[in-house]
Design a protein that fits this description.
Elements: H1 6-13, H2 19-36, H3 46-59, H4 68-94, H5 115-131, H6 133-144, H7 149-156, H8 160-180
Helix pairs in contact: 2-3, 3-4, 4-5, 4-6, 5-6, 5-8, 6-8, 7-8
């Protein structure tokens, strides 16, 4: 949602308007965009992802969200953690982590994005966040929320060229980190 979007501005000005309803709809859009990149047959659908993220956001401290960009940063981080946890659970099951045997018809067939790759990206992203928080934030918004460059630029209040440059450099740095591991 664009910060100048009349619905968003109206929610901020009119306490009777349900801001959370508007934000929830935006989260659903992000979740649908993110899940479009996930492998087919993923047990976690866009609605489940947004509901889980919403529950986590409610448990966090909403008063810490000073503005829209902080809210969406928190939402992107929640979605990232949910997808990583899901990938870790599937990998643990795949490797027989002491869990009960599961009938073959209940197992998931690996699809487009490998769970091990999600874990590798997560770990590389944590390293990038230590080195350059802005690049890490751009990656989270782009990769885990499916936002476009212009949306990220608006959200972070930077130039779109800056976002594109940081995105390109972040991809190189993430690749280097993953291949070195």
């Amino acid at each position: 949602m664009n910060p100048e979007d009349p619905r968003f501005v109206h929610c901020l000005q009119d306490p009777d308007e349900d801001l959370m309803k508007v934000l929830y709809q935006e989260l659903k859009k992000l979740a649908y965009a993110r899940m479009a990149a996930e492998r087919e047959g993923h047990t976690l659908g866009p609605t489940a992802l947004v509901h889980e993220a919403w529950l986590r956001l409610e448990k966090s401290s909403p008063e810490a969200w000073r503005d829209r960009s902080q809210f969406f940063a928190a939402a992107s981080e929640a979605m990232r953690r949910i997808l990583v946890e899901s990938a870790r659970r599937r990998l643990a099951i795949k490797r027989g982590s002491g869990t009960e045997a599961v009938p073959l018809e209940e197992l998931e067939i690996p699809g487009e994005i490998d769970d091990e790759k999600i874990i590798e990206v997560h770990e590389a992203l944590d390293q990038l966040a230590k080195e350059d928080p802005l690049k890490a934030q751009i990656v989270k918004l782009r990769f885990f929320s499916g936002m476009e460059h212009q949306e990220i630029a608006t959200l972070l209040n930077v130039n779109e060229k800056t976002v594109r440059r940081h995105w390109a450099l972040a991809k190189v740095r993430l690749y280097q980190t993953i291949t070195e591991a």
